[in-house]
Specification:
Helices cover 63% and strands 0% of the residues. It has helices spanning 3-13, 31-38, 42-53, 61-71, 81-90, 121-137, 142-154, 162-177, 192-195, 199-211, 217-226, 243-252, 256-283, 288-301, 306-319, 330-348, 352-368, 376-385, 391-401, 407-413, 415-431. The protein is elongated.
Length: 432
């Protein structure tokens, strides 16, 4: 009988016989299983990190930085990046929902929550410098910090005490101002449960105040733009999303530069909208009355200072002109168009300041478009004759109100017009 036949016969008569197995062989676990198991080990990582930090004296920030950097050589910082930042930023492990993991573990020997009360920018700068040194050493930590840890922790600001909230907000302001993190993380503050009762905007004001301690408003504005923060009103409760309320809030918080920047930004949006509307209406050859009504409707949606309005109206109306004509006919075309648009401009020329603002806008326009540079005096004459600007506005502009762009050229070219207007004024006074 062959060996195969014996094995087959044994199997048939003893179907319950144990199957052969290999002894002493170690089966390697799959990578996915290892990763899944690792998710349940943050407490082990925390305890190991604490051992590195427990020996450091309180407020010895250089030693804390050194110990954290050393810990990175033995601990898996990349795998436990979220845990690492929870420990450093809020002093322990956080559960979904924002409460601490209840396992009787002590607060981290090093956390921003250990900073002095009340929270101060100068004190928290020491903690941020430790973070900065850590991230400079392990650059792969920056991405999880700004894309995962900060957005997640910001969702829980309403779970902490006011003192803890202030420390966390100041820290974020410093991280953003130093370029360690992006302002994109602030999107978390626009969540519905956080904007209630001004919770989000209060934190935002603290963040901005810390940021502006070292940087300019222009720097902050650029950072907000890069981070996709387009509208600060989204940080306010839905029933308080008004420009006036925003302005009052930031001024009350001692941040007038934020209020002024936001207002200017809204003005720029409104001006762009009006210019686009004017160009569209003129291209469809709408009547002056319809154009005036359309502009007034836009102003009801977003008011503009009169001086800003008249300047953007000039830009919008001039942008609607088809300038593709023979060079020797450009000047005549410019004067015809100004005369056509004068009834529209005249409605919005409300007072001397607005009139001077219009003259300055014409000056800058003629300076930038050299094809119509020589027509500047004639344009002023048309605007004067159609009651858009007064003789006093022209004289004031000539004496001390002109823009630096091409000033000497334009003052020289308007000498005759100004002299004529001054003589008219003198004759009028003599007649009286």
């Amino acid at each position: 009988m062959t060996c195969t036949a014996v094995l087959q016969w044994d199997s048939d008569i003893n179907p319950t016989a144990a199957k052969p197995s290999l002894q002493g062989v170690r089966i390697k676990a799959r990578k996915g299983a290892v990763k899944a198991q690792a998710k349940h080990e943050p407490s082990v990582f925390r305890d190991q990190l604490y051992k590195h930090l427990e020996t450091v004296p309180e407020n010895d920030f250089d030693s804390f930085a050194t110990k954290l950097v050393q810990a990175g050589s033995t601990l898996e910082f990349l795998k436990y990046a979220d845990v690492l930042f929870e420990i450093i930023l809020v002093g322990g492990l956080i559960q979904p929902g924002g409460s601490y993991v209840d396992d009787a573990a002590p607060t981290s020997p090093f956390t921003i929550f250990n900073a002095k009360d009340p929270a101060s920018t100068e004190d928290l700068k020491k903690y941020v410098e430790v973070l900065n040194k850590l991230i400079r050493r392990y650059k792969y930590l920056q991405k999880p910090l700004e894309e995962q840890s900060l957005p997640t922790l910001l969702q829980y600001i309403n779970r902490w005490s006011p003192e803890q909230r202030d420390k966390f907000a100041i820290t974020i302001g410093l991280l953003l101002s130093q370029g360690i993190a992006s302002t994109a993380c602030l999107q978390s503050l626009t969540k519905e449960q956080l904007v209630k009762n001004d919770a989000s905007v209060t934190v935002l004001a603290i963040i901005f105040r810390a940021y502006l301690a070292d940087q300019s408003m222009d720097h902050l504005a650029s950072a907000l733009k890069r981070g996709g923060i387009k509208d600060l009103l989204l940080f306010f409760p839905p029933n308080r999303r008004e420009g006036k309320i925003l302005d009052e809030f930031f001024r009350k918080e001692g941040l007038p530069q934020v209020a002024e920047w936001y207002t200017k930004k809204q003005y720029a949006i409104a001006k762009e909208s009006i210019m686009s509307e004017l160009k569209d209406l003129c291209s469809h050859e709408e009547s002056a009355e319809n154009i005036i009504t359309a502009v007034q409707s836009k102003l009801e949606e977003q008011p503009l200072p009169d001086t800003e309005l008249i300047q953007c109206m000039w830009q919008g109306l001039m942008a609607s002109v088809d300038w593709s004509t023979r060079p020797d006919q450009i000047e005549g075309l410019a004067l015809r168009e100004v005369k056509k648009f004068a009834p529209i401009l005249e409605v919005f020329c409300k007072g001397p300041k607005v009139e001077v603002a219009l003259i300055n806008q014409v000056q800058v326009h003629c300076y930038e478009d050299t094809r119509i540079m020589k027509t500047f005096p004639q344009i002023l004459k048309v605007l004067y004759q159609t009651d858009c600007i007064s003789d006093q506005a022209i004289i004031y502009w000539y004496q001390k109100g002109s823009k630096p762009q091409g000033r000497q050229h334009f003052l020289k070219s308007t000498e005759a017009l100004v002299k004529f207007l001054q003589e008219e004024d003198s004759e009028g006074e003599d007649d009286e």
